[in-house]
Design goal:
Layout lengths: L2 H12 L3 E3 H12 L11 E3 L2 E3 L1 H12 L3 E3 L3 E4 L11 H14 L4 H11 L15 H8 L9 E6 L5 H10 L4 E4 L13 H10 L3 E4 L16 H13 L6 H14 L1 E6 L9 H8 L8 E4 L1
Parallel strand pairs: 6-9, 6-10, 7-8, 7-9
Antiparallel strand pairs: 1-5, 2-3, 4-5
């Protein structure tokens, strides 16, 4: 079993075996921010505050496995023992401290606490009754106030879906342009349909331009930086040389939306063709904009 699921089960157990989903999610966030606790789940700001795709998925899986009973609003333990699902001492202690702090708190009090403590995650909430003037001001400080026209590039290698989306939100990205040839991924959350849905849910446009991608068979046997350089030199002489209309399309989107990100897999932009696309854009006669690699 994934360790993060063991932590979730132990937290539920300490809190009496049952919690409403809003409280559970927020307690997991507080646990993540507790010194010494394992960094199990990442979160994004969503309509009720913090939300974790991985925690949501884990609940569904453990419900199917018969470990949990899940309704629309609540989660209950069915089958649990600490011996079967042991966790680190530091996590056990952190959960017990969490219980001491919140065992007598209502769902509303837990929501209020997280909004005040972590205003970033309250930025998209529909529960406006909890948003004070002070929280509203602190939310503004969590996001880039820079509205200058900027081309960003971002890869999803080595980060969670939540961390990836948070980078888009914090940098005020308006449109995400997927430059993969085949927008499929073995990493959950990054295939085209689901990625498009998730960014759209956050108010970010999604556009796929497969014509600027690199065929997967050309990406085999890339064992060194020199291999990548050779690949990208051929890419520039072939695909990019004949892609003026797609480069112009990105340029026009950038002029209109101002904060645009090119996305592909690789974490290091030097090992990704999105950098070559950005370089090609910078050669346009009217180019006068910043490029930033996230």
């Amino acid at each position: 079993m994934l360790y993060r699921r063991k932590v979730l089960l132990n937290l539920l157990n300490v809190f009496g075996g049952e919690l409403d989903k809003l409280s559970l999610t927020k307690l997991l966030l507080i646990l993540k921010r507790t010194d010494g606790a394992s960094q199990c789940y990442d979160f994004i700001p969503y309509k009720f505050g913090c939300f974790s795709y991985s925690a949501y998925t884990d609940l569904k899986c453990m419900h199917k496995e018969g470990l949990l009973s899940e309704t629309e609003n609540n989660v209950s333990l069915i089958n649990f023992s600490q011996e079967t699902y042991p966790i680190k001492l530091a996590d056990k202690q952190a959960i017990h401290l969490l219980h001491e702090q919140f065992k007598d708190k209502s769902k509303e009090e837990i929501i209020k606490f997280t909004y005040e403590k972590y205003p970033y995650y309250a930025s998209r909430t529909t529960l406006k009754q909890y948003i004070t003037k002070d929280i509203k001001e602190r939310i503004k400080e969590c996001f880039s106030q820079d509205t200058s026209t900027t081309l960003f590039t971002i890869g999803y290698e080595g980060i969670s879906a939540e961390e990836y989306l948070n980078q888009l939100l914090r940098n005020n990205i308006k449109t995400l342009i997927d430059v993969r040839k085949n927008p499929l991924s073995m990493k959950y959350g990054f295939s085209k349909s689901l990625l498009q849905k998730r960014v759209n849910d956050l108010g970010i446009n999604y556009i796929h331009i497969p014509e600027l991608g690199i065929e997967s068979d050309k990406r085999q046997a890339l064992n060194s930086y020199e291999d990548y350089l050779a690949l990208f030199e051929n890419y520039e002489k072939g695909t990019l040389k004949n892609a003026d209309k797609f480069i112009l399309k990105i340029f026009n989107i950038l002029i209109k939306d101002k904060r645009v990100a090119l996305t592909c897999f690789e974490k290091d932009s030097r090992y990704c063709h999105r950098t070559r696309i950005a370089n090609k854009l910078a050669t346009l006669p009217n180019w006068k904009y910043k490029t930033e690699h996230l």
